[in-house]
Every structure is written in C-alpha cells, then in structure tokens.
Please model this.
Amino acid sequence: MSAAGAVLLEAVDVRKRFGGVQALAGVTLAVAAREIVGLIGPNGAGKTTLFHVLSGFAAPDGGEVRLEGRPTTGLPPHEICRRGLARTFQIVRPFRGLSVLENVRVAALVRVSRAAVATRRAREILARVELADRAEQPAAALTLGDRKRLELARALATEPRLLLLDEVMAGLTPVETDRMVALVRRIHADGVAILLIEHVMRAVMALSHRVLVLSQGQVIAEGPPAAIAGDPRVIAAYLGEAYVPEAPEPGPC
Amino acid sequence: MTGGGDGAAATAAARTPIRGAGRWLGLAAALAGLALLPAVLSSYAVTVCILIFLYAYLGQAWNILGGYGGQLSAGHAAFVGVGGYTTTLLAVHWGLSPWGGMFVGGALAAVLGAIIGGLAFRFGLRGFYFVLLTVAFAEVCRIVVLNTDALGGALGLYITFTGDPWQLQFRDNRGYYYVALGLAAGATGVAALVERGRLGAYLVAVREDEQAAEALGVDTFRVKLAAIVLSAFLTGLGGAFYASYLFSLQPNAIFGIPLSVDIIIRPVVGGAGTVMGPLLGAVLLAPLAEAARTYFAQGGRAGLHLVVYGLLLIAVVLFLPRGAYPHLRAWRRSRGGR
Amino acid sequence: MTLTLVGQAVLSGILFGGVYSLMAVGLTLIFGVMRVVNFAHGDMMVWGMYLAWLLATRLGVDPVLGVAVCAAALFLLGVAVQRGLVDRLGDAPHEMQILLLLGVALVLENSALAAFGPDPQRVRSPLAEATWWLGPLFVDVGRLVAFGVAVALTGALWLFLRRTDLGRTMRATADNPYAARVVGADVRRVYATAFGIGAACVGAAGALVSPVLPFAPGSGLAASVTSFNIVIIGGMGSLPGALAGGLLVSVAESLGAVFLAPSMKELVSFALLIGILLFRPAGLFGRRP
Model:
C-alpha cells in the first residue's frame, strides 16, 4: 500500500461494551497517510462509538489504538488532538456564543500560542472552507450547511494528519453535498488523511479509496467502493438476507 | 453570560491601529482623571470610591472564573478570608509588612483554589454541584476559623492603627484610594489580557461546550484549574487590602456568604465575562451598597440590602441575562454603528 | 451507659428522620420533574417555621395543626416562584437558574431576618414538650408526632403520584417532558404543581420542626445543605432515595452529636456535603442528572 503512504492510524481488535450491549466486538482497521477511507454500516453498527474510541472520548475495554505507531489508547481527547487526530461530531457543536472566526481561533490555538497569529490562521482556514464572508457572524446564526463547514474548519485548524468526519454530509441538499465532497477532496489533496462515516452513499463512493463496512460491532467487509456495493454480506447487513441476489453460502458471520 | 466578551472587538481593534491608539488614549485619560479625583472630592466621597474600587477588584477577580469560565463560585469569600488572615497574622506575629504578606496570602488562597478546583474538576463537578462545593468550602473555612482560638476565634483579629504606609495603613483616606485604584486597574488589566489571550479563548470555549473544546485540543481540566488559581490568587491579594482597610477581621464577615454575594453581584449585574462588567456593576451598585452600609446595618433592618441584592439578581437574570454592559454595548452599536 | 446514649441517639435520629425525609422529598420532586435545583429550599422551610410560629403566638394554633396552613401557604409560594420566575427562564443556561434561585433564597432569608430579627425562636407546644418512656430510652413526643405526620404526608404524596391523573402526568413529564407534551400534558401546570408540592413539603417540615428545635433565619442554609446531602446520597430525583437518605443522614447526625461538640455539627454537615459531592454515588436508587 505504498501509494497510500505510511500507516497513520491503526486499531487492533478494539472492543467496547456499554452495559449489556457489545458496541464494538473486535474492530481492526488501518488508515494510511494518503487515503480517504469510508466507514459505512447500518444504524447501531458502532461507527460513532468507534470514533469515540479513536478520538479518546471513550476508553476501549480491549484492543489497542495507535497513531503514527504510538499507542493512544486511554489518552484524553485533547492529547490525541495534539498528536494529529481531529474529529467532527455527528450533531455539530459550534460554540454558539462566539463568532465564526472566534470558533476557529480556539482550535488554531492548539498550534500557536499567540492570539494574533491564531486569528490570522483562523482567517486562512475560513477562506479555505469558503466561510470567510461569515467570519464575524455569530455561529448560532449559520445555516446547517455552513455549520458543517465551520465544524470542519475548526477541526482543520488543529492541523491534523488524520481527520475523522462523522456524517458530515447528513442533512445537506444535493448541491451542498457536492460542495462538501469537493471540499473534502481539497483537504485531502492538502495532505490530510480522512476516515469518514457516511450514510450518503454517493459521497462515500465518490470520495473513498477504500470502504469498510461495520455491522454489529465488527468489520464485515473491506474493499474498493465498487466491490463493496455488490458484496452480499453488505447487502445482508443493510437489507437482510432475503435481498441478497444469489443464494449465499454460509458466511463467516 | 453567553456573550463572547470583547473578543470580536479585540480582533476588530487589531485591524484598525488608529482606533486602537484612540482606546489607549481614552484609557490613559480615564486613569489620569481618577488619579486626580481625590483632590476635588470630600473624604466621604473618597470612601465611597475606595469601596467601589475594592468591589470592582474582587468582582474582576471572580469574573475570570465565574464570568469567562462560567464556573459560578459562591464561596469566593474564602479566598478573601485566607488572604486577609494570612496577611494580618504575618504582620502581627512576624512583623511582615502587608505589602509582602499580601503575596503570601494570595499564594495561600491560590493553594486553596487549587484544592477546590483540583477536586471539583477531577470529579467532574460543574453547574450547581460546583456552586455547592464552593459554598461548602467557604463555610468550612469560616467555622474552622471561628472555632480556632489561635486564629482569633469568634472575636476575630484586630489590627492596631499606626498610620504607617509600610503597614498598608494611611492616615489620609487618599492613600487607600490610590492602592484600591491600583488594584482595580491591575485586575482589569489582567482580565483584559486573559480575554484577548489563549486562556480567555479556551475558558470561553470550555464554558460553551467542554467536549467540543476537548476535541479541539483544549486541556479543559488545566484551563479551569488555571482560572480558579488565578482568580483565587487575585482575590487573596484583595483580602489583604480588605483587612488593612477595615482593621478588623471577623470570621463571619470575611468568610461569610454575604461577602461572597457582594463579590458576585457586581460582575453579574454589570456583565459577567466582559472586562467592563465588574466595573460597571460596582458603579451601579454603589448607591445601594452605601445605603446598606450606613442605614441598613443597624437596627432591625439588617439584611434588607441583601433582600434588594436578591431582587436585583432575579431581575438581572430575567431581564438582562448577560448583564448591563453587553446590552449597553449592543444598544450603542445599533445607534451609532461601530 | 454509652449503649443507652447510642440507642437514644439512634431512636431520636429515626424519629427526626421523618422530617428530613419530607424535606428531601420536596427537593427531589422539584428536581425530578423539572431538573431545577431549588437553592431556596432551606429558606422556604424557614418561612414554614416562622409561619407556624406566627400561628402559634398570634392565634394560638398548635403547630401540628398549623402544618396544613403552612403547607398550603408554601404551596402557593412555590407555584408563584415557578410560574412567575423559573418558568420565564425557558432554555436559558443552567447558570441563570442557579443565580435566579440564589436570588430567591436571598430574598426569603433576609426578609425573614428583617421581619423577625436574628434571634432564635421556638414554638411552645404542650404536645411537643411531652416525653414518653420506652424502657431506658425516652421518646420526644414532638419528634414522634413530627415523624408520624411526615410519614403520613409522604405516603399521601406517594399515593398522589401513583393513583391520580395529575400525579401520573407528573411522573410522565419527569421521565420525558417532550413526549408528555406530545400526548397533551399541560407541562407548565405540572411544573407549577411540582414546585408547589415541593415547597409545601418543606413548609410542612418547617412547621413540624418548629416546636422541636430552635430556629432563626440563618437556619435556611443549614436546612438547604441537609436537604442537598440527603438528595445527593439518595439520588437526585428518586423518592425512595430521599426517604432512605433522610433516615440515614438523620441517624448519622444524631450519632455525630453524641460524640462531637455542638459547634462541630455544622462543620460535619458541610464536610459531608463536600465528600458526597466528590464521591457521589449514582444514587442509592436514582438516576444521575
């Protein structure tokens, strides 16, 4: 996988249990430095839980997570962010009382300590995500599409090597979706690896070099987008066994 | 308390140097004016000003934790008490000048702040749990001091008046005036620095959404701890002045809830989370505070001023939730277009 | 001899626990239904006490009978506070709620101070001053009566919540206010009633306590702290937790008074609060806020 670059993120046999539910039942994956990896799966598959574990918001019960070879299991989120992994949230969480610029400035401060420099960097980021004209507006006043871009801008301002995007297309119109896809491509082209959870299939297929399918806490399929679309296990996971085109042989799960 | 403070104004000011210079000139003029004021004021008026400056100072110190940080502490009197008692005991037993003793007092108050903050934030206390914790700590301090004879017990400590400036005592009111003015200006400077810098940005982010802040690399525990330690240190310094100005330390007064209320009401009314808020609040509340001091304190009307404070708190929360200053600023902007 | 002392303390503690439970039930109900922490709880109790005192001294009404009046008066106060103040907050951040109720607490405590002065009062009640002997232990009739009435009131509240429509609506709203609205519950009315009942509980507790212990406007803070201690131990929003917690804390305090100097009692209360806040369980029975 040398075209995809060195391995950036590794999760090895990650397990997480909440009460009676085994949310993650041994997830192993890797993301390389130049990849965009899509993470799909039915609701409740454990995708966001996986993001929580990868970004430090939840400690796994078993397994390990490594970022650039160094273990990050059990580290707090802010430390993982400092090491180069940034994430967005499924339901966007702007700092509502602050302006768009101030929102991004907070994130930029993790890399520079001088406020004035951080402000400058924040403006640059806003320009990259095409939010520059909204810089002084209160974050609470933005449309959903703009809020998603703000969420993205904030994560970018922390200068990540790897970006975890949690359903960043959700709720967007087709036009907004296309813009977002273009934006994600630009970010990737600037040298950021991306792992994205998505339900909007056309975005996943358009962006991903590789797609992982999560179901019931396990990776059930992995491969290029086109292959995944026709994979009987994936169809079974989403729609049920009855919809798989040929009679399936008993699979591994 | 939801305002973004003067952050937007700060970035705007950074881009317009001429306007920035104008603000510095205005500030210098205001300070000069305040410095010259005692020449034309009666002794009584000077006293009123001293108290305005003192409560503006204490309020500004609280503002760093409670306003910018959004962590409501209703036990800040504990820091005043620690600062005041430390300074006084050091002066009485070891002859240490309060000018030095105040820093020891501030440091001890900071230690107490670190303990409270360390415990509270480690255990994830926020909101009303945090308020309760601060009240509990302040009351524990009060009761311990009240019952410890070595610290003066219920009678408290008395300072003999020597009028010696090295003892932070002045025969002329105006000495206290300038010290208080210096403190208030200093605390305001600290608040402005905090607001414009990284700590302020982080504090506000933590106040708004702690988890989102964590995801952006903010060590929320350290940020909150820094805020409470700084706030406690400054408040402890103020305690030294409080002791020197009032000449007597009574545990119920200096550790008590009424003082904590006095501390928080000015920034809340004036605008928590802004630099001008505590100053504006101190000025606005001065008439009431004066009436309380002179009329209400005696007779059966004790506590009436606290009733008014309570009503004021209710009114501010319902009608001016961000305090007077943000509304004033918004009103000015809509009129003059900034 | 120490055993008798300890036994006495436990008995007194249990008897007084009824009142503590009643106080805590009021606070936990308000929190459970509305997610509001009533910082003015102890100060409402103080007004219950003074009202009972007024009834006793001006009208000669025995406090145990006056319980009904105090409960009713405090109910109205609770409804007024909720409707007039808390309701207006809407979606405001929690800090606003805290400051608002702190303001109410200040007003209540200091108006009592201004009206009645700082000196402790107590209500003379023939019923309260009797004692019965139970073997080597004596039973303070005042406390026994307080216990009985408190238990009866708590039982009545339990029935109200289980058997009446409004009570069931209240529980539903506590569980899920949005869904409750969807099925047509008048949520504002539920909130007002809950606050009213919570205040009535603590007002009744105040009336019951007034012949048993001396009180002053400053008692408000101690009463609030005790209520918080109990409710946090028992679980914010849990009625059984408030009951069990009330007994627990009362017995603990009673035992503490045997072994510690009186001035330390307050200290222990606050130290306990600190400990409970830091190591708070998810509640013996309840849910986390």
Observations:
- Chain B has one domain: 7-284.
- The domain at 7-284 of chain B is CATH 1.10.3470 (ABC transporter involved in vitamin B12 uptake, BtuC).
